[in-house]
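Entry 14. Structure prediction run on the chain below.
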Amino acid sequence: MKYLISYDLSGDRDYPTLETAISAVSLGRCNHILGSVWIIDSPFNSKEIYNQLYAHIADMQLIVCEILPDNCEGFIPPILKSQLRVSFTDVINDL
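Output returned:
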């Protein structure tokens, strides 16, 4: 299953430890697409992923959502939607 992971970037945090945990939970099949946003492929469900990552960032906000590739949208200008859909689909399919 494909998932989107996002967390709050703030203060002095041990992000390398979190990034290692994300890589572990995705078995290395992950893309760090924005500063605090990842797309991963994992055999675990969203609750299992959340629980494994939360241990590394217990005082931060964290969200894990399953991605349904045919049902992805974003708040962007319409002219960029087709470009994003291709790029986003490529990122998901690369996993």
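The beta strands are 2-7, 30-34, 37-41, 62-66.
Filed with the rest of this week's runs.
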